[in-house]
Write a structure and sequence with these properties.
Layout lengths: L3 E12 L8 E13 L3 E14 L14 E15 L6 E13 L6 H7 L9 E15 L2 E12 L2 E13 L3 E10 L4 E13 L2 E12 L21 E11 L4 E9 L2 E3 L12 E3 L2 E13 L2 E10 L9 E11 L10 E12 L2 E5 L2 E5 L2 E12 L2 E8 L18 E11 L1
Antiparallel strand pairs: 1-2, 1-24, 2-3, 3-4, 4-5, 5-6, 6-7, 7-8, 8-9, 9-10, 10-11, 11-12, 12-13, 13-16, 14-15, 16-17, 17-18, 18-19, 19-22, 20-21, 22-23, 23-24
C-alpha cells in the first residue's frame, strides 16, 4: 500500500597481508522497513556485521594486536508524529546494540609468545538507548527538546538537551545545550552564519564543555589527569567563503582551549594520556562544482605546532565525476560516481612513559566507483590503492590495498 518503503544493503570488506599481517574481512547486511503517511511514520532498522581480524604483529617493542572474531548488531524502531518542517512534532526511538565476541582463546603462555594480552573468555556486551524528542517549527523559528536515555551495566543515564534556531536566506543563529548525567558534564554550542550575498558567507561557532568538578592540571606535567577529572573545554571557529562561479573558496581559523587527549590504548597500553594547553589552526579549502559534473572537495589544515596525537599539517582532497548522464538516459534511471581521494598528514607523536613514538608522513590514495540503476546501487572502493606500507600508528603497518564492495536497494510503494 502507498507510503511503504523497504531498503536492503550488503557490503563485503576484505584485506590480506601475508608479510605485514593484520588481514581480515567483514560482511554486513542492512534491512530497513517503514511506512510514512501525512502526519505520522514508523520504521524499523537492523544492521548486522560479522567481522574477523588476523593477528597484527608489531614491528616495535610494544604489544601486537590480537586476532578477533565477533558479530555486532544494531537495531532500532522509531515512531514519528507531526511535521518537523512545518509544525509541532514528536519522535520516539528505541534501539539496542550488541557485540558478541567469539575469538580464539589465549592463555598466558601463548599470549606471551604472540606478544598479546591473555584472553581466556568471550565478551558479550549490550547497550540499550531510548530517545524522546519533540519540537515546533514556525517560519524561521525552530525549537526542540530531546532526552537521550542510556541503559547499560545495571544503570540508567539521562542526557536532556534543547535547541533554538532562527534561519532564513541571509543568516542563521543556532543555540544548543546538553546535560549528561553519565559524565556529569554540561555542554553548550552556538553557531551564527551571515550570507549577505549568494556568493559570500561568514560563519562563526563557539563550543564549551563544563564538568561539575573541574580538575586543575599542568600542561607541563605528563599524565597529570591520568587519575581522572577533566578541565573546562572551549573551542572557537571562524570561517569566510566566497563563491567563484561553481566552487567555494573557504578559509578559517580554529582555536581549542585546554584539553585532555585520551590515549589510544586499543593499540598499546603503553600510550599515555596527555593534558595540553591551547592549540590554534588555520585551514583553507575549495568545495563545489569545478566544471559541469566534475566536483572538487579539498580542505587543508595547519596547526601552530606539532602536538601529541596530532600532525602539524593535514589535508584531504577529493575529485569526483558525479552524473546521471541525462543526455543518454533522460529518464534519470542511471547514475555514476567516480572519485579519487588523497588523505595526507605529516608525522605524528605518540607519547609513552619514557618518551615518544613517531610515525612518518603519509599520503593514502583511494578510489571509489558507484553505479546506480533505478534504485539499486553497486559500489566498489579501494583504500591505499598503491599498497604503500604507511604506519598511521607507530610500529603497525597499515594493510596494503583494502577492498570494499556492496549493493544497496530502495523499494517504494
Amino acid at each position: 500500500f502507498n507510503g511503504a518503503g523497504f531498503q536492503v544493503a550488503g557490503q563485503q570488506y576484505s584485506t590480506r597481508s601475508a608479510r605485514l599481517g593484520g588481514g581480515g574481512d567483514a560482511l554486513s547486511f542492512l534491512v530497513r522497513f517503514g511506512i510514512a503517511r501525512k502526519m505520522w511514520s514508523v520504521d524499523a532498522y537492523e544492521l548486522r556485521t560479522n567481522a574477523s581480524r588476523a593477528l597484527q604483529p608489531t614491528f616495535g617493542t610494544g604489544l601486537s594486536l590480537p586476532p578477533f572474531q565477533g558479530t555486532q548488531d544494531l537495531g532500532y524502531v522509531r515512531a514519528g508524529f507531526g511535521n518537523v518542517d512545518g509544525g509541532p512534532w514528536f519522535q520516539a526511538i528505541a534501539s539496542t546494540m550488541q557485540l558478541a565476541e567469539s575469538s580464539a582463546k589465549h592463555d598466558a603462555v601463548s599470549a606471551a609468545q604472540l606478544r598479546i594480552i591473555a584472553d581466556t573468555s568471550d565478551t558479550t556486551t549490550k547497550r540499550r538507548q531510548f530517545i524522546l524528542a519533540g519540537g515546533l517549527a514556525r517560519g524561521a523559528l525552530r525549537v526542540s527538546a530531546t532526552d537521550r536515555i542510556r541503559a547499560f551495566n545495571g544503570a540508567t543515564y539521562h542526557t536532556p538537551s534543547a535547541r533554538f534556531e532562527l534561519a532564513n536566506n541571509t543568516g542563521l543563529v543556532s543555540v544548543f545545550g546538553e546535560r549528561s548525567f553519565q559524565t556529569k558534564t554540561t555542554r553548550a554550542d552556538a553557531v551564527a552564519r551571515f550570507s549577505p550575498l549568494p556568493y559570500a558567507s561568514i560563519v562563526g561557532s563557539f563550543s564549551t564543555s563544563m564538568p561539575d568538578s573541574v580538575t586543575s592540571f599542568s600542561t607541563s606535567i605528563p599524565n597529570s589527569l591520568a587519575s581522572g577529572g577533566v578541565p573546562k573545554f572551549v573551542a572557537v571557529r571562524l570561517e569566510a567563503g566566497v563563491r567563484l562561479g561553481g566552487p567555494w573558496i573557504v578559509g578559517g581559523f580554529i582555536t581549542r582551549d585546554t584539553a585532555v587527549l585520551t590515549a589510544p590504548t586499543v593499540f598499546d597500553s603503553a600510550y599515555q594520556v596527555r593534558s595540553i594547553g591551547r592549540r590554534n589552526g588555520f585551514y583553507a579549502g575549495l568545495r563545489g562544482s569545478l566544471y559541469k559534473d566534475i566536483n572538487v572537495d579539498v580542505i587543508g589544515t595547519m596547526w601552530d605546532s606539532t602536538g601529541y596525537y596530532q600532525p602539524h599539517y593535514q589535508a584531504r582532497s577529493e575529485v569526483n565525476l558525479t552524473t546521471n548522464w541525462l543526455s543518454r538516459f533522460p529518464s534519470g534511471n542511471f547514475g555514476i560516481k567516480i572519485a579519487g581521494v588523497s588523505d595526507y598528514r605529516t608525522a605524528v607523536s605518540f607519547p609513552v612513559q619514557d618518551g615518544v613514538r613517531r610515525t612518518s608522513a603519509s599520503n593514502v590514495l583511494s578510489a571509489l566507483v558507484e553505479i546506480r540503476i533505478l534504485r539499486g546501487v553497486a559500489t566498489y572502493q579501494v583504500r591505499n590503492i598503491l599498497g604503500t606500507g604507511y604506519q598511521i600508528v607507530p610500529d603497525f603497518f597499515m594493510p596494503r590495498a583494502i577492498s570494499l564492495y556492496g549493493l544497496r536497494w530502495e523499494f517504494w510503494n
